[in-house]
Amino acid sequence: MANVLTAAPHSEEDVLIEQMGYDDHFHEHHDGDKFQSNFITTYIFSQDHKMIAKQFLITGMFWGVIGGLMSLVFRLQLGFPEESMAWLKPVLGRWIEINAETGMGALSPDFYYALVTMHGTILVFFVLTAGLSGTFSNLLIPLQLGARDMASPLLNMMSYWFFFLAGLIMFISLFLNTGPFSGGWTAYPPLSALPQASTGSGAGMTLWLVSLVFFVVSVLLGGINYITTVLNLRTKGMNMWRMPLTIWAFFVTAILGLLSFPVLASAFFLVMCDRGLGTSFFLNEIFIGGQALDHVGGSPVLYQHLFWFLGHPEVYIIILPAMGIVSEVLAVHSRKPVFGYKAMVFSILAIGFLSFIVWAHHMFMSGVNPFISNFFVVFTLIIAVPSAVKVFNWIATLFGGNIRFTAASLFGIGFVSMFISGGLTGIFLGNSAIDIQMHDTYFVVAHFHIVMGVAAFFGMFAGVYHWFPKMYGRFMNETLGKLHFWGTMVGAYLIFWPMHYIGMAGVPRRYYRFDTFQSFSQFDDMNKFITIAAIITFGFQLILIINFFYSIWYGKKVTERNPWGATTLEWTTEVDPGHGNWAGKLPVVHRWAYDYGKDGQEFISQITPLKEGETNDH
Amino acid sequence: MTILLVIISVILIAIIVVQIGKVTELAAKIRGEEEMQYEVNRSQGGYMILFLVVFLVGCVVSAFYFKNYMFGYGPHTPASEHGSILDKMFNVTLFFTGIVFVITHILLFYFGWKYSARKGRKALFIPHDNKLEIIWTAIPAVVMTFLVVGGLDAWNEVMADVSSDDNYLEIEATGFQFGWNLRYPGADGLIGEKNYKLISSENPLGQNWKDEKNLDDFLATELVLPIGQKVRVRITAQDVLHNFYLPHFRVKMDAIPGMPTYFVFTPTKTTEEYRQELKGYPEYNVPDPADPEKMLWETFEYELACAELCGRGHYSMKRPVKIVSQEEYETWLSTQSSYYFSNIRFKENDPWTDKLFNSEVEKKKDLFTTAFAVENIGKDLPVEGIRFKGDKEVSLTGSSKEELILLADMLKGKSGSKVKLSVTVPSEDNNLIADAEGKANLIVDVLIANGVNASQVEVAPVSVAAEDNTTTKWVFTLLGAGLSL
């Protein structure tokens, strides 16, 4: 479809690379390709970044379905507390409590909180960190930089398998007798540190900690690799200012991860000490279960500092890759250079830097000295400036374009809408005075689900539809993609928009039932509505999954290298590149990544040399 | 069966989805992919505009529909002094973000429609525009500065602690799994010390009874506050994190074990006033589902909730909150009694057994004066505090002595007044009986040493309790009242 707009001869790239390319003698050293010699090294313990990307993506999809289904179960409880959930007993077992007299089945509060906790942990870490950044950093960093593979394919493979291990342990914790951890994805002590505080804080918390420590290892191995590759393995001519915005986003994301995840690990180790070794890092003067504990002198607030020192960069670790993908997708499909490339880069850098000095805006109401909050308010609201610049630049990218509506570009536009809606409510919450009332209400739930949940998913979907041809040599079905887009776009707003109103009415989040409080129990109809919207929206994701797996084997075949008419290097490889990505020499880069519509040409690939007298000023 | 049905329906849906996909691809092949793409662009551009209109209209309509439920609007003007500052900040932010929201969405979807690819059109080549970029960096920066300044001004005003010359009421809220303990300072206006190691079923907060500030503190089951009174809530937790949340007052602060926090606020609307405001709105003129006899506005109560996940009962940590007039508050205060005097005094852990407090002396005097009357002859006297200390050298506790001296004062010089001391021991045990006789002598000695004539005190023989009892009981009975026989 799109290729009609780009009638480039099939072999033009080959000719250019052959004539001007850079010979790194790759194939002389890798004869026979010992990396991909059998089934196991090709599909399981693969060191090829493209296969690892697919592994991250499909594992992420698996967790996305699990995490999504969990949210449906607790939404059913919230929306329809008076309906029996006995029919879920075959799946959920003991966690559905049957009332002996009425025969009514209800989710137990313990399991409700366990589901909420698992939903958050899985979506934040396994889906939107590993599934998003893991997938596209792996796929695109070598391909768009003109590298044969990551700097260390072995560490890259280990990164995936540590993620897999983390997932496995988390999955096992779902089947524990006492249930998985149930103290919220932030795992604040003392609730998380004391097994007697809740059933999920026993073995469930132990496995949660172990799982996430492995996850941190995975992120660090991946991050070191991404950074090294971006710094060292760019092909000839690919200076930093010629990198596509995707790479800039993945690069900064990896730096954020590398600097912040170790702090999370340290917090986890200290929690482990408090749990197992009798230390008092986070515990102080606690009387629980009829017993006064010996722990004194610790501070639960210290944990929150450590956690959010990761936790805030983490939301940018989630959203930056989505921003990078959307910048690229919007430019390609509107056939225009991304507007203000340098401003976009500086925004990413500014956001990355600021993300480290705003963490305590999650803690305005945590009992920290109110004076300290002044600084965090200032830095937090400063983030609105680079974020606003990015939004305006995306909109300006569409202006005057020749937009091709594909599933990818639709999700790109949807991302911008979600990022605006969710970002603007951040201005309320980042202002500590307003946060007094809004903190931990449904307003917060609406805010972060839209801005880092739905928006990041939209970025991910845009990426999946856009680079699917590169991954599998086939297209995903466009009509189903558009159906998926509109269903998700409308559905997501129907789920999360009303939550603003509920939050503004003061209803706190993480409530198992609302009928204890008169003030909070006025939204029964709205809760039903949200639950139904969530079920339908989840149903639309099944379209994506079916489309994805069907298209892997039966999708329309990609017949030419550059189906979207894009300038970046990944489209100069063969349709289905083998290990090492380019069959012969490596491409050499002559221009930035966004020469769309320049000099009356549809697009000019990065490997095309500058014409006489042509400047590459942008 | 349900599982099977679910699986079958998923498979069916999958088949339908795949078929839709196939059909459209086939159609594209027949009609030419290029043509098809332009047609798709047209229709998707149309959907963009449709979505934009429905979305923006939907936002406005739904906001108006729910207006009277949201805080800061309709009847829900804040019930505290600082609340209106916060609500104003919210609305100022809403104004600016609302403008940005509408403009950016209109541009986004309008451009989507306007610049969808058509045959023969080419995209513009505009890589950047410094002037534009400076403008749209500067505008958010200016707006943010404005919001930061306003926000911090409000924040520092609202979060300011009380100063020493303020007239404020300090109360304490302690979160536990799953509820709140509310402690009032009593007449001295000061909250006593507590220590988590002292917590027990008799002492739920771990109050240190040696601290005299604790003695008049009382625990309440609901938070009752007088209107217009500045209140400083000292917020603590017993086990895990909780959050002291008063939605109608815009009050929220974490409760942390071992680290007290605080929030200062002044209620400005009584519960009754709030009800009257709700009455004016149709949303609250519907029957309360919990009490269908009454309208929602009639059953309205302020509520205290927990806003920090604290375990399985997090959603149930409710305490009612009542804002009342000063007079009603004082009436309520008079019905509350000190936890120490109702539950701890003269019990095992009472550290003050060596004396009577002035208030107790006054009370005792009044009781004795009333009791020493002719019509009370034959009745028991209100002597409650006979206790001994020491194992080898047994002696009366200080408070017992003081009470006996008060009794002696009633008898002294009034030969017509006479009392009988009887003692009941728990079981037929010679040691116990001998011990009781000895102790009775100690009591009589105190009375005589304080001016009572030996003939005014009759000591009855030791009796044994009919039913199993664990303690020895001392009873004074009035035998005569008056100046002379």
SSE topology:
The complex is a heterodimer of chains A (618) and B (485).
Chain A: H1 12-20, H2 26-29, H3 39-44, H4 49-79, H5 89-92, E1 96-98, E2 105-107, H6 109-145, H7 153-173, H8 203-232, H9 245-276, E3 287-288, E4 291-292, H10 300-334, H11 341-354, H12 370-398, H13 407-429, H14 432-438, H15 442-472, H16 478-504, H17 524-554
Antiparallel strand pairs in A: 1-2, 3-4
Helix pairs in contact in A: 4-6, 4-7, 4-17, 6-7, 6-8, 6-9, 6-10, 6-15, 7-8, 8-9, 9-10, 9-11, 10-13, 10-15, 11-12, 12-13, 13-15, 13-16, 15-16, 16-17
Chain B: H1 2-31, H2 33-65, H3 83-114, H4 130-159, E1 168-176, E2 179-184, E3 218-220, E4 223-226, E5 230-237, E6 242-246, E7 251-255, E8 261-265, H5 271-279, E9 287-288, E10 291-295, H6 296-299, E11 302-306, E12 319-324, H7 326-335, H8 339-344, H9 358-371, E13 388-389, E14 395-396, H10 398-411, E15 418-425, H11 430-449, E16 457-459, E17 463-464, E18 473-480
Parallel strand pairs in B: 1-5, 4-12, 15-16, 15-17
Antiparallel strand pairs in B: 1-2, 2-3, 5-8, 6-7, 6-11, 9-10, 11-12, 13-14, 15-18
Helix pairs in contact in B: 2-3, 3-4, 9-10, 10-11
Keywords for this entry:
heterodimer, A: about 625 residues, mainly alpha, two-stranded antiparallel ribbon, 17 helices, globular, disordered N terminus, B: about 475 residues, alpha+beta, five-stranded mixed β-sheet, 11 helices, 18 strands, about 20% strand, elongated
